[in-house]
Amino acid sequence: MGNDIDIFINANLTSDLHSLLLKKSPFAEVSMQEIVQQIKGKKVAQKKFPYLLKDGIIFPPNLNLEQASSQATAEFKAQYLKGKRFVDLTCGFGIDAYFLSQNFEEVILVEQNFELSEIVKHNWKILDKKADFINENLEIFLKKNQEKFDLIYLDPARRDEHKNKKFLLEDLSPNLLEIQDQLLKISDQIIIKLSPLIDISYLISALKNIEEIQIIAVRNEVKELLVFMHSKKDKEHTTISCFNLESEEHAFSFIFDDEKSATSEFSEPLQYLYIPNNAVLKSGGFNSISEKFNLKKLHPNSHFYTADELLENFPGRVLKVEIMDSKQIKKGEKFNIISKNYPLTPDEIKKKYKIKDGGNEYLIFTQTQKNKIILRTV
After folding, report:
1. How many Cβ atoms are within 10 Å of 24's Cβ, its own excluded?
2. What is the DSSP code string of 243-282?
3. Average pLDDT over residues 276-283
């Protein structure tokens, strides 16, 4: 896109897009629909991948923008990876590829969607980044390929032709169960990005040579699950690592099989309540975290932990609490409400006690092994 079009796009970033669509494009070579799509893309980029906020960058349709990784998760993935030859078998809009390939000499990007591949090729030229772009289906690429790579990355499509979500490995495109042996022959290291909803036990039973599974949250929202496979690794000791980006929380990791032998002790609430972040909760390391930090659980199903000591490096929230009688809750008071393993939802709790959301204090509705309780932050 030309300079005049970029100026028009930048000038209309806060304009009403529905009104814009009703107007005629001031440029003969570009429709108003295309301009509005670029405005949408730039607005997404402001939050999701600000490195693309350069004049001349072209943004793809909304679905590709939604499916692309954020800059935060892509940069995080890339920080320890380096080598000579890198291939991304499912390039998409190229966010992961851009950062993952930073410390590689040769970059090969495979993408079956021609328009998307051309957009990435155009953008990388503007970003002064080089790659070999291959516009074909990855199965065809793998069939023809005679090369070896230091790192293979792929993010399988998780929707079918009717846009329905898919979770089983054999239902993804490509079918990971069919190609995993092939991948392990041509690279020592493979990274696969999967839905955060996928079951970790199922993954470990279905895929070979898993070295590590990383669960990546951003501000406590789990965004990605990454599988690191290594050709020389057996699956005896798979590490599960949990990260909460854009927070000050420490990472947490444990050996998957050790969770089965780990145990938790139980207690009524002590001075501090420990609430693991969502990456840890997704990991299923409920006994491992209890053992590692010497914390006691309130109840087998609550995943709330307690101690009299304040720990600085816990991966989650730590609240100083006391038990509260429900009669002490006054109508109209403001609280942040947490309800876990308790019969009422936060909305039902607000209605029952006539309280409002907000304020600086928390009310935690849960139960111990003895009874249902309400905790208040102090």
Report:
1. 7
2. EEETSSPPPEEEETTHHHH----B-S--SEEEEE-HHHHH
3. 98
